[in-house]
Amino acid sequence: MDRPLVITEDHDLLDDLLRVAAAAGAELDVAHVPVHARPYWGRAPLVVVGGDVADALAATGPPPRARVFLVTHASGDPDMWRKCVAVGAQAVLELPAAERQLVDEFADAVEPPAKPGTVVCVAGGRGGAGASVLATSLALTASRQRLRSLLIDADPLGGGLDVLLGQEESDGARWSDLVAREGRVSFTALQAALPTFAGLTVLSFHRGEVEPIPAEAMRSVLEAGRRGFDLVVVDLPRHPDQAAVEALGRATTTLLVVTADVRGVLAAAQVLTGLRRHTGEVRAVVRGGVLDEDVVTGSLGVPYAGSVPDQPRLATALNRGDIPPIGRRTSLGRFCGSFLDTLLGPGD
């Protein structure tokens, strides 16, 4: 794969460009002399020209092309716009002010545009409703259908989805390693940093005291997830915080897990009020109980997504730390497969 091209003799500028490219997960081809850039000029997905070599580059008569930027440390130098026109660049980027824009440009260059992944949020109508199990099962089912799947734990008090999968000791980044991130995150770097098991990439919390996820960090992770994964499943807290609001705003649909009893419906109605402020579509997944599904959905005023009965074998497996047994023949597996087929189209 062709790499972005940087043309500069300024070592300080080059150091900054290498750092910015690393933040975007990009490797660069570097030409210190404009004539050395000729073999790369036409095929590089992005060209960054240092202001120090712009006139020398223009003198070589490079053919016109898209996605050329002139980069400089000089702030407010009007001569840079003359140089920008001379080399056929589309903009002048002044560092450090334009670093975030340049990260985005490098990331776009190494991550070709793709159909954005689908985001599904899952919330429990009350504690113990089974939202985390459903979120995990959806993501696992998708990965078994050879869909690139990312499972995000957005509930700081949920106990950890890696624990649910029996993988709390696995190597890889947790939210504590990502909370300071702002701006664009490369999905390749994100996937490489996070633990992956059973074909599923997981972002969960570390053990010990947990702090809320900043909205900026959740936004960066979700955008990287949508660029690099077919499906992103987010396990939400019952009371949406800023991070949950970011996820709800990007969700194609949100599943609300409701236990089919009076208290379960009343509690779910309270949760639903918070969800509806931030997302468009909410559907109910009904856990077996004394009330009929149509009574539950009619009381809440939401569409019916399906029902999932209690599964004693599932609870036993989870307490042992086993990966949830959600084969196609189980009721949970059937629901997840059917739901994903409806949402994304039939899988393998």
UniProtKB/TrEMBL annotation:
<dbReference type="InterPro" id="IPR022521">
    <property type="entry name" value="Rv3660c"/>
</dbReference>
<dbReference type="Pfam" id="PF26563">
    <property type="entry name" value="Rv3660c_N"/>
</dbReference>
<dbReference type="InterPro" id="IPR017746">
    <property type="entry name" value="Cellulose_synthase_operon_BcsQ"/>
</dbReference>
<dbReference type="Pfam" id="PF06564">
    <property type="entry name" value="CBP_BcsQ"/>
</dbReference>
<dbReference type="InterPro" id="IPR059050">
    <property type="entry name" value="Rv3660c_N"/>
</dbReference>
<feature type="domain" description="Rv3660c-like CheY-like N-terminal">
    <location>
        <begin position="7"/>
        <end position="114"/>
    </location>
</feature>
<dbReference type="InterPro" id="IPR050625">
    <property type="entry name" value="ParA/MinD_ATPase"/>
</dbReference>
<dbReference type="InterPro" id="IPR027417">
    <property type="entry name" value="P-loop_NTPase"/>
</dbReference>
<protein>
    <submittedName>
        <fullName>Septum formation initiator</fullName>
    </submittedName>
</protein>
